[in-house]
Design brief:
iron, two-stranded antiparallel ribbon, 8-stranded mixed beta sheet, Rossmann fold, P-loop_NTPase, 278 residues, 41% helix, alpha/beta, 12 strands
């Protein structure tokens, strides 16, 4: 009955993409926010961003929606909209203050994730982006289990170049294989820094073991792209603005646009193959 309920609610979602990382602080929420902005740049597409990082909900701040609240309608909770074609849902909208700590055990977190999927009136959606917390535990198992009632296109895994980060990302890739979650590819964040004045590139986080590129070759996973560091990314996130619009000529923006295009092509290919099977 529960699966049927979820299937009915999420039946109008065309593509679902999970954004994962083994380690915190690698830019996963930033990537989720910019992926949503990039996809929603096409006004013909309806995009939804679901934040299931229950203890660290940073999406409201990054999307410029701090202080907004969720409204209840006859058909369920209404997402908070950034644009007409970009809706957001996060536990951050349910807290009385952004500084409130969410001190919950696993079952309560899982219950809220299920509620987000079952009770939010998403409407017809082309892309549902799910921003997850770091790791491979409760929230990840829950979202994969609940979404298995419908369809997940796959996961995008975020890392930084150094071995400390790659070590945890290998675990995340292993998790995806174990729960049969397709991997769209890996994004290497903070991949070098291009000086805005002299245009020289510096490796802030040296890839001592070959970085994400070498890891992807070893594990037979696609590398979607490398995003260089740009101080403007942090500033844009703090102001709740889209970095892609704020700095259209930045090398990081060009890299993001290429990665977003590759994710779209993957999802379209998946959709095409499914229609062929049907």
């Amino acid at each position: 009955a529960e699966a049927a309920e979820l299937r009915e609610r999420l039946g109008s979602v065309k593509h679902t993409v999970l954004v994962l990382s083994g380690k915190g602080g690698v830019g996963k929420s930033t990537f989720s926010a910019l992926l949503a902005h990039g996809l929603a740049a096409d006004e013909a597409k309806q995009v939804a961003l679901l934040d299931i990082d229950i203890c660290g909900p940073s999406i409201p701040k990054m999307m410029g929606l701090e202080g907004e609240q969720v409204h209840q309608s006859g058909s369920g909770w209404s997402p908070v909209y950034v644009e007409e074609n970009l809706g957001v849902m996060s536990v951050g909208f349910l807290l009385s203050s952004p500084d409130d700590a969410v001190i919950w055990r696993g079952p309560k977190k899982n219950g809220l994730i299920k509620q987000f999927l079952r009770d939010v009136d998403w409407g017809e959606i082309d892309y549902l982006i799910v921003d997850t917390p770091p790791g491979t535990s409760d929230e990840h198992l829950s979202i994969v289990q609940y979404l298995s009632a419908t369809h997940i296109d796959g996961a995008v895994i975020i890392t930084t170049p150094q071995e400390v980060s790659l070590q945890d990302v290998r675990k995340e890739i292993n998790f995806c294989h174990k729960v049969k979650l397709p991997i769209i590819g890996v994004v290497e964040n903070m991949s070098g820094f291009i000086c805005p004045k002299c245009k020289n590139e510096s490796q802030i986080f040296p890839p001592t073991t070959g970085g994400a590129e070498k890891m992807c070759q070893n594990l037979n996973v696609s590398l979607l792209g490398k995003v260089p560091l740009d101080p403007q990314i942090g500033k844009s996130c703090d102001k709740g603005q889209s970095f892609l619009c704020e700095a259209p000529e930045s090398p990081a923006t060009l890299s993001y646009r290429n990665i977003i295009q590759r994710i779209q092509e993957y999802c379209d290919q998946q959709h095409f193959q499914e229609e062929k099977i049907i």
